[in-house]
Write a structure and sequence with these properties.
Length: 110
């Protein structure tokens, strides 16, 4: 990501919005649609004919945690968007997972 701007104040909650900028993608406003505090959240961005749904889930796994990240394209143009942006989306999800892993590893070793 090249930029994230929260569009509201306070803790993350259903209805919270953020504007995300990523290389090679148009800027998008994402809105939280589901939240289980400390465990998972889902947010959505809407564009012409496409609704992009991003899910983030953390589950305790023995002595650590497992994170699951996923992206889904829905709407009349969802299948086309998924096909066109497939590799780029996969790469961005991988980068997000790597960044999260680095941050958690730094925190747990401190």
């Amino acid at each position: 990501m090249t930029g994230v701007d929260r569009l509201d104040d306070g803790p993350l909650r259903v209805g919270s919005r953020a504007k995300l900028r990523q290389p090679r993608l148009p800027a998008a406003v994402w809105e939280v649609t589901h939240l289980v505090e400390g465990r998972e959240f889902t947010w959505e961005a809407k564009g012409p004919g496409v609704r992009t749904i991003g899910r983030h889930e953390v589950v305790a796994d023995g002595s650590g945690s497992k994170v699951t990240l996923s992206i889904e394209q829905a709407g009349p143009m969802g299948a086309v968007a998924a096909l066109v942006w497939r590799r780029l989306t996969q790469r961005y999800v991988e980068l997000e997972a790597e960044s999260l892993d680095q941050r958690v590893s730094r925190t747990s070793s401190a």
